[in-house]
């Protein structure tokens, strides 16, 4: 057994939460020094699709800034570009299928993300680029790539972490930050249950030409998060920044390739039971992006109201790549992800009573995955990272568990509220009898 004077922390997963924790532990080494290692199942940073836009709120942004060193903070603008005054509005807009306003909470505007952290309004946010944010957080992090954790063995003095290549690593504290399908959580808390909403969503990134974006904004306004509710529990949510994206002159060989394009995230959600309506004869194969895209368009035609907004939605979905781009280097987001249907899930906080703390703990989606309706998942992961890093300052070999217990108690209380808040919002919005009252 190893008895190094500097305690070792192993982090499994290189999502936003795991990377923020790594930086925080290194940043705090003058208060408490750890030997920190971080492992990732992917073979490289670009192996897997890393997601679309995310909205960071005041709490999440504040925790992120508290976690990372100045060298990272100075690069955050690559992923969190400053708002464009009078051009884009960082806020949320909810309308019905005819465009009538249902919900438009106050959202204080700001010059940059540093100013955002001084704001106290609950609904203030900034739309960021998730993939670029991960790239910034990966800077100077010596990730052990291609190491899939398959379990661990906890002993009296520490933890042996097992990997699928047959190797293992010893540590004093193990942190599972490896997402909703976390092998660490499945062993640590096997009784935690996944809650199925009965909702399906389809998400895609598109490069939208300026003329189409101008039509959209003229009709819907320039709030960067916009959700429109249908009459059958279906909804469309679009997230964007009005910052032109860099592109190759011959992108997709389109005649309008010299026109400015904007990066837009499309999200179409609907009750899963609508997939089984007998009148819909379209066969959908989730391994065939073209069939999934056509399925979404058919639903928009069937359930949407006639009018310009529906027409624009169909044009937006027409822009989604139906297969892997011929030249991935010219594809706007570098990492292409096939378009497919996915279910809404969360980790049900009511499925397990508070557990006894140990040397193995969890962070972010690994312990409290929540649906994206309110955009609270990544924000909670950053808060977890800050909270755990502060708790570990009090780590001692004589009392290795007490600091973990303090972290888990506080993390459970906060995250359970947000999981259930997000669930309530998603289920209400996914109901044909949607009622805006008490969504949040």
UniProtKB/TrEMBL annotation:
* FAD-binding domain boundaries: 340-414
Q: What is this protein called?
A: 16720_t:CDS:1
What PANTHER family has UniProt attached to this entry?
Answer: FAD-BINDING DOMAIN-CONTAINING PROTEIN, MONOOXYGENASE, FAD-BINDING
Molecular function, one GO term: FAD binding
Question: Is Lipid metabolism found in the keyword set?
Answer: no
Q: Which UniProt keywords apply?
A: FAD, Flavoprotein, Monooxygenase, Oxidoreductase
SUPFAM superfamilies in the record: FAD/NAD(P)-binding domain
Upper classification of the organism: Eukaryota, Fungi, Fungi incertae sedis, Mucoromycota, Glomeromycotina
